[in-house]
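User: Design a sequence. Structure:
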């Protein structure tokens, strides 16, 4: 499962997006959140990656 955040961060000339992905632990079955700040073009690759 994954979700894409709607936050856009602008610093100077760069436009950045914060992506949040929900990952299920294979051992415990609990969900954790993985966050990353990246270029908007890389968000779909981050979400699709396991």
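Assistant: Done.
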């Amino acid at each position: 499962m994954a979700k894409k955040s709607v936050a856009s961060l602008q610093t100077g000339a760069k436009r950045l997006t914060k992506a949040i992905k929900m990952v299920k632990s294979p051992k415990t079955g609990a969900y954790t959140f993985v966050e990353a700040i990246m270029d908007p073009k890389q968000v779909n690759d981050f979400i699709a990656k396991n």
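The chain has one helix and three strands. The mean pLDDT is 82.
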